[in-house]
Amino acid sequence: MSESVRAAVFGTGSWGTAFGMVLADAGCGVTLWARRAELADAVNSTRTNPDYLPGVELPETLRATAVPAEAARDADFTVLAVPSQTLRANLAAWAPLLAPDTVLVSLMKGVELGTTMRMSEVVEDVAGVGRDRVAVVTGPNLAREIASRMPAAAVVACTDETVARRLQAACHTPYFRPYTNPDVVGCELGGAVKNVIGLAVGIADGMGLGDNAKGSLITRGLAETTRLGLAMGADPLTFAGLAGLGDLVATCSSPLSRNHTFGTNLGRGMTLQETIAVTRQTAEGVKSCESVLDLARRHGVDMPITETVVAIVHEGKPPVVAVKELMSRSAKPERH
Ligand SMILES: NC(=O)C1=CN([C@@H]2O[C@H](COP(=O)(O)OP(=O)(O)OC[C@H]3O[C@@H](n4cnc5c(N)ncnc54)[C@H](O)[C@@H]3O)[C@@H](O)[C@H]2O)C=CC1
Ligand SMILES: O=C(CO)COP(=O)(O)O
């Protein structure tokens, strides 16, 4: 990778910082944009991100700034890593600053409330760029593990294969192995819905329901994700890949997952308010479960696990009652 490739990363949280580190390790010059000047200063002076990745030493070629125009300048890739529900307002402010011909890259795993738009659709809408200039990076990529340079594979999705290959080269390191995939819809849905299933598995874990329940939720969660994907024109094979099964397995088995942990706290009996109070970082599924359910209804797709998560998280249904209802639905063949 040529050192002249420049990347801007908007969002200095755990994944923005870790992915910035991947890009820097792959040979790119990287500027992180941080919302708070103190955090940008801390990154530059200590070569760490004390708030989100304490103890991880960041590469020399990664700088931070709180000035959006400075981050955006001359960027070949403009990476977006803020909470999904804040993307529209943030990007509206950044759009006039973007370098001409920059490729916009979404790291976000959510669906916009109200519009039910995927993040790449929000990017196209707000930045006014064609889909060939928007890419998505997704897969089993728990930020803390990537930041420790533990091995992981990922997916770079873009409808334009040349753009996907450029980005693939820009983020390929000895510990981060990206594959390309033209199925942007499937890759984004895989990432957004796995957070909802991660909440469901966390709730089951918190209730002590065991590993059979976990295996059943992962599998049936993937089945309902695939049903939605098919209705939206995705390639069903995407869901058997890194963006689907791969990310579900990582999320549903790891205590590092914020969604899984959020669910576990609910399953142990914490209230929603108590759970929110102990959650410092973004657990996208908490909001996106509602937009995913909305999307499912718009497409006439049955998503019982997602419906159950919405009922527990937003409608106060006790988990014990929800499990009983989920299990007593009418019997049916597996492939429906
Ligand atoms: N952390 C992880 O392991 C992974 C996260 N993701 C996705 O990446 C996206 C970002 O997540 P993280 O970096 O993990 O979240 P985080 O909670 O660690 O960081 C979020 C960042 O956004 C900033 N932020 C919060 N509200 C904002 C606002 N209103 N305007 C501007 N900036 C704001 C925060 O200051 C912080 O820098 C999410 O969609 C998440 O699902 C994807 C793969 C892995
Ligand atoms: O997307 C992730 C791993 O691929 C991170 O999951 P959480 O957002 O639940 O921490």
From TrEMBL:
Domain Glycerol-3-phosphate dehydrogenase NAD-dependent N-terminal span(s) in chain numbering: 8-163
Domain of life: Bacteria
Coiled-coil stretches: none
InterPro entries linked to this entry: 6-PGluconate_DH-like_C_sf (IPR008927), 6PGD_dom2 (IPR013328), G3P_DH_NAD-dep (IPR006168), G3P_DH_NAD-dep_C (IPR006109), G3P_DH_NAD-dep_N (IPR011128), NAD(P)-bd_dom_sf (IPR036291)
Entry keyword annotation includes Nucleotide-binding: yes
Keywords from the named record: Cytoplasm, Lipid biosynthesis, Lipid metabolism, NAD, NADP, Nucleotide-binding, Oxidoreductase, Phospholipid biosynthesis, Phospholipid metabolism
Signal peptide (UniProt feature, chain positions): none
Chemical reaction(s) catalysed: sn-glycerol 3-phosphate + NADP(+) = dihydroxyacetone phosphate + NADPH + H(+); sn-glycerol 3-phosphate + NAD(+) = dihydroxyacetone phosphate + NADH + H(+)
Pfam families the record matches: NAD_Gly3P_dh_C, NAD_Gly3P_dh_N
Major location (coarse): cytoplasm
EC number: 1.1.1.94
PROSITE patterns found in the cross-reference section: NAD_G3PDH
SUPFAM superfamilies, A to Z: 6-phosphogluconate dehydrogenase C-terminal domain-like (SSF48179), NAD(P)-binding Rossmann-fold domains (SSF51735)
Binding site for sn-glycerol 3-phosphate: K109, G139, K194, D247, S257, R258, N259
NCBIfam families: PRK00094.1-2 (NF000940), PRK00094.1-4 (NF000942)
Protein name, entry field: Glycerol-3-phosphate dehydrogenase [NAD(P)+]
Organism: Streptomyces galbus
Annotated gene: gpsA
